[in-house]
Design brief:
Layout: E1 2-5, H1 10-22, E2 28-31, H2 48-63, E3 67-76, H3 97-107, E4 117-127, E5 133-144, E6 160-162, H4 174-180, H5 182-197
Parallel strand pairs: 1-2, 1-3
Antiparallel strand pairs: 3-4, 4-5, 5-6
Helix pairs in contact: 1-5, 4-5
Inosine 5'-triphosphate (ITT) is lined by residues 7-9, 12, 70-74, 87-88, 95, 97, 100, 120, 153-157, 169, 181, 183.
Length: 200
Amino acid sequence: KRLILATRNAHKVTELKAILADAGLELDLVGADAYPEVPDVKETGVTFAENALLKAHALARATALPAVADDSGLCVDVLGGAPGIFSARWAGRHGDDGANLDLLLAQLADIDSAHRGAHFECAAALALPDGTERVVSGRLRGTLRYAPAGDGGFGYDPVLQPEAESRTCAELSPAEKNAISHRGKAFRALAPAVRELLAP
Ligand code: ITT
Ligand code: NA
């Protein structure tokens, strides 16, 4: 069965394919790039869940196929939860991971190590063409480093060191990251609904 991943972020597509396959779902997964004629939806929601649902519904409606979407970001305690839903454009230009990371580190330069708590959050949404929807979320708690380390993953991975880890997310293997990540938790929690709602 075809399930569209309503994301144009290639890193998310790679992670989601592995996470959903490991959850035992036998699906034909394509990213939103397979549907270039479908315009990107404006992320006008004020929560990760709202934005994930907006993206999933837009693609499901346009393609008449089931779609899942991911809205995610980094929430920093001392910044009151920012960048949060603005994580992809924290430094201005959408998707400029390097600039976003540099700005965040500069903003936290004077924050001592006891106050560098943060978490990644992911909302995983499923939408069917008839309007049926499900949304769940997952979190990964950790602390923020003073300098990036590692070249795996994407986005803020080089600065988040998960609880009970001595490495950053960017120093974990893809399987190690997926096992503990916000995205892994959210999509494993969504898997039963995918299985149920896509059943023949
Ligand atoms: P789509 O909306 O097309 O899915 P996007 O990259 O615009 O792609 P988001 O709006 O959800 O996605 O923004 C997610 C941002 O949050 C992303 O640019 C990263 O900076 C950050 N982020 C999300 N998941 C992450 C992860 O696993 N590791 C590091 N950073 C992550
Ligand atoms: Na977003």
